[in-house]
């Protein structure tokens, strides 16, 4: 049974369902990671996205457990925060831009990086979703190397400056993560990954 908790109307559900049917055929449907590949491909309108996705240390299970624990979700920008589905779970969704603005100016770093450094104590057991800012992902990887332990990191920043490098660095960390290779990515991919895990979480609860 296909589920899309973000589809509010019959037309919206029909469009979503048809897109997913095409994605299953184009991408495959062998398990939860394929579901994320499907949704990310739909989000960017390109089946090639599926082959770029990377999954480390069973990230789907980590994400489902984090949602069950009502772990905080922390995003790099407000577009990602806005795009994450708020129904179906009890996790608070924060944006790093709302924290550490003074630190950004004093240290000469990006606001998103400053926000994550400021939120360091809240990162343990959290879900981090970074769709835009390579600087934030590099800062997060630095904190992880120094002992910070999010439950899951979704890192798909886009661009030609440090995007590919930051995602490669994320994959070297010994934590559950979802990322993609290369310079592609962006908010749609990050949001699609998170929202598919939320959808799976809703389905899991419905079966109990």
- N- and C-termini, Cα separation: 15 Å
Gyration radius from CA atoms, angstroms:
16 Å
Strand percentage lies at 5-15%
Widest beta sheet: strand line-up: 1-6-5-4-2-3
Low-pLDDT sequence parts: none
Largest sheet entry: 6 strands, mixed
Q: How many H/I helices?
A: 10
- CATH topology descriptor: Rossmann fold
Order of helices and strands: HHHEHEHEHHEHEHEH
Architecture in CATH? 3-Layer(aba) Sandwich
Structural class: alpha/beta
Helicity, as a percent range:
40-55%
* Net shape: globular
Number of domains: 1
CATH class: Alpha Beta
Mean pLDDT, nearest integer? 93
| Count of individual beta strands | 6
Q: Tell me the CATH superfamily.
A: Cobalamin biosynthesis CobH/CbiC, precorrin-8X methylmutase
Tell me what the structure shows:
With 208 residues, the chain is of the alpha/beta class. It is 51% helix and 11% strand. The chain is built from 10 helices and 6 strands. The chain has helices at 10-27, 32-44, 49-52, 59-68, 78-83, 101-107, 111-118, 134-145, 163-171, 187-206, and strands spanning 53-56, 73-75, 93-95, 127-130, 152-155, 177-180. The protein has a 6-stranded mixed sheet with strand order 1-6-5-4-2-3, sandwiched between helices. The longest helix has 20 residues, at 187-206. The model has no long low-confidence stretch (mean pLDDT 93).
Structure at a glance:
With 208 residues, this protein is of the alpha/beta class. 51% of the residues lie in helices and 11% in strands. It is built from ten helices and six strands; from the N terminus they run H-H-H-E-H-E-H-E-H-H-E-H-E-H-E-H.
């Amino acid at each position: 049974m296909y589920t899309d908790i973000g589809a509010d109307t019959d037309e919206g559900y029909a469009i979503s369902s048809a897109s997913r049917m095409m994605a299953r055929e184009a991408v495959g449907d062998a398990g939860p990671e394929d579901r994320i590949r499907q949704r990310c491909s739909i989000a960017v309108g390109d089946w090639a996205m599926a082959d770029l996705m990377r999954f480390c240390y069973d990230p789907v299970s980590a994400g489902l457990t984090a949602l069950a624990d009502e772990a905080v979700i922390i995003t790099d920008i407000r577009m990602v925060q806005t795009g994450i589905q708020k129904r179906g779970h009890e996790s608070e969704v924060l944006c790093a831009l709302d924290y550490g603005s003074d630190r950004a100016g004093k240290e000469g770093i990006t606001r998103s990086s400053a926000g994550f450094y400021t939120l360091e104590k809240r990162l343990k057991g959290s879900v981090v979703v970074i769709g835009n800012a390579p600087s934030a992902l590099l800062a997060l990887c630095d904190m992880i190397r120094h002992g910070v332990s999010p439950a899951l990191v979704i890192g798909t920043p886009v661009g030609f400056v440090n995007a590919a490098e930051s995602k490669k660095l994320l994959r070297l960390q010994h934590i559950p993560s979802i990322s993609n290779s290369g310079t592609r990515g962006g908010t749609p991919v990050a949001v699609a990954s998170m929202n598919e895990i939320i959808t799976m979480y809703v389905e899991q609860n419905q079966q109990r």
